[in-house]
Structures are given as C-alpha cells and as structure tokens.
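User: I'm writing a short report section on ligand binding and want a predicted complex to refer to. Could you take this sequence and 2M8 and write out the structure as tokens? A short remark afterwards would be nice.
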Amino acid sequence: MGRTALRTLAERVLDLNWTGDHTVPSRSLYPHQWSWDSAFVAIGLAHAAPDRAWRELESLFRAQWADGRVPHIVFNPAVPEGDYFPGPAFWDGPTTGLVQPPVHAVAVREIFRRTADRERLAWFYPRLCAQQAYLTTRRDAAGDGLVSIVHPWESGLDNSPSWDEALARLPADPELLRVHRRRDIRVAAPAHRPTDADYARYLAIAGAYRDRGYHDDDLAGRHGFVMECPSFNALRAAADIALAEIAEELGLPAAHHRERARAIVSAMVEHLFDPRTGMFHARAVPSGERAAARCVNGLVPLVLPGLPEEIAASLVEAATSPRFGLGGALPVTSYDRTAADFDPVRYWRGPIWINMNWLLHRGLLGHNHPAPAALLRDRMLDLVGTGGCYEYYHPVTGAGLGAAEFSWTAALTLDLLENP
Ligand code: 2M8
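Assistant: Sure. The structure tokens for the complex follow:
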C-alpha cells in the first residue's frame, strides 16, 4: 500500500473508533477509554485532527482522581456491562483504580507543538504534575525512587514474561473464573490471549487492591504483586522531561522536573539494568529479585536522552541481536525470539507491537542512530501497510493478530508518516 493510502486508512480507523469525546482502542475488544491508548491516539490525532487530540486527553483527565491518579480505564456508561470484563461492576466505580504508563505529558507536548494552544497547555500542566506526584509519593513502594506497579495491567504489557516469576508465587483460583466469565476469549482467539491461570491471578490481584479501597499504604508488606517495570519508569522520566519543556513554555520553574528525570534514570541504572544481559529487567519488591526474562520493556529506556551512552549502546546491541531482530525483515518483538517459551501469537509473549517499536524508533533517533531508526520506521510502515492497523503482528509472517482496526497502531502510523 502506498503511503498516501496508508494515511487514509489510518485516519479512517481513528474516525471509526471516535465516540464523540474519546477514541476506543477497538470497537470489538475494548469498548471503553484506556489511559495510555488515549495518549498514543492523541499523538496521531495531533496531525490529523488537533482539536480532537486535545479533547481525547481532556476527557481522560476529567476522570483523574483527587489523589492525582489517572485511571487505566474510564468506563463509558452507555456501554452495557456485558461488553467488557472486568467492567464497572467489578471495579466498583466509573473507572478502574489502576494506572498505566504516563505517556500523557509527551502527548500534550506533541499536540502543543502543532497547535500552540497555550490556554489548553495551561489547563493540563497542573493535572500532569498531579499525575506525577501521585506516582512519586504513593507508588514508590521500595523507597528507591522507582515507581512500583501493583498489577500486570498497569504495565500495559499484560502477560509479558516479566511477570511470570511473581505471578507463579500467587495461587490461581479457578473458582474466580466460574464466578466471573471472561469475555476476551469469546471475542478473540484464546491462543492469542492470556491463559485462564493468569487471568484468575489478574482478578485476584485486582480484587485485593479494590477491597482495600485502592489504598497504597504499605504496598510492599500487604500487596501480592509489587514490581518495578523498566518501561513504566522510563516513560515516567520522559514525562518529566516533557513537563520541563511545558513549564518553560508557560514561564514556570522547570528545574525540578529535569532533576527528577535525572534521579529516575540513575535509580533505573542502579536497580534495573543488568550488565550481563545488557538490558533492563523488571524487579520484584520487596525481594529485589530481577526477572530473568528479556522483554521489550527492558529496551524501552532507550527513549531517555539522559541515559549514559554506554548503556544506550548496550540496548541498541541487545535490540539488534537475534533475540529481538532490530534491522531484520520485521520490527522488534515483544519477547526474546530465542527463548524456549517465545510464543508467536500470544499477546505480549512474542508478537510485534507498534507502540513499543515507535518508542524504540524515538530512542534510536535520540541517541544518534539515524540509519537503524529509518529502517525501523520503514519496517513498521510496511507491516501496517501490508496487514492493516492490527493490535499486534506475527513475528515470523507479519500477519495481523488481535483486534483489527486498532487505534494506537493507526495513530502512531500517522505520526511516523508525518515525521520522515
Ligand atoms: C490490553 O489490556 C487490557 C487490560 O487493560 C485487556 O487485555 O483487556 C493491553 O494491551 C494494554 O496495554 C492496552 O492498553 C489495552 C487496550 O488496548 O489492552
């Protein structure tokens, strides 16, 4: 498909999934508003429909909690309870109490660059600061300057092997799946989705957090799943860099944002980088054990401009190795291709995701690797141009998998087309 036809296709997907004040990730599988999906969508809409880009994030931030957290799903009250599980009845409210990676400050900066709308920028700035403050003060479960996630869903890489060891320590109660029926495996192929055992654990962890009123006190002592995720923390540092630029634009002090970004990068290098694998790994709290699996979230810190150059070089090397295949015929996989349990179709355990590759593309450009960046961009555009805007792609055949007409794939395609 030519680039012009691809732009038309991507815009059509975003139009199809627009509800009037936000974009659903996919009409079939995800009929509500997801937090980091909206940020990626807004980055694409900034080119195609900038007013809609602002509205996308405004609707999300209108659901921000008083404590500053931006919920991972905002439920659309017009959508029947049965259309998504776990829906509002499970979470006991109009939103979930979980969060997702804070890509929103980066998205706001991108929309501002294209609209120069200072009034809307000023509306967002305190809200984005409150989002960061929640993460910094309420979610530093280990007290080491890194944010902990309390559920695999918070990482956005739901069933990544990063969480296997931590999940294996928790019981998988099959009774939970008799009480609550999964909907995802009625809409998508079960072989592409998390297993029942994992799903039972997801429900148990979410239910325990909900039953404690979504309080974050003594997470390390009381909660069954507490993990430091390298891509979540990298995106949080990237958010502070974007916030510094936003603050400067508004004539406000910015140094504290840059200082916090620097502190997050140092803590990540100290606690999450493994010189033996040359990449970052998730880490359990309070045990401090690093997950053995090599997953794409361990490469995402390449987005950080402040990363020491030898670490950036080591990430590029890991990405280029046969484990992830950067520079090969297809974009980078979500998991180590050479691992015994690499699964080409199951969600975050092998397939190729456009948002991860879009972040790596930015990282390659930021660390002065223009040739592999250009190649990766072409590979992404070819993949989407051949298969359509799928949720994820088969790492051998490039076939589209998961939901068709998936919003962030369309949005980030638009951004790649606009930024040659
Ligand atoms: C997937 O996660 C949701 C739960 O949040 C699900 O499986 O139902 C993940 O890929 C996540 O990163 C994404 O935000 C969400 C919607 O696209 O789907």
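A remark for your report: The CA atoms of residues 391 and 402 lie 5 Å apart. Residues 25, 30, 34, 36-37, 72, 153, 156, 158, 184 surround 2M8 (CB under 6 Å).
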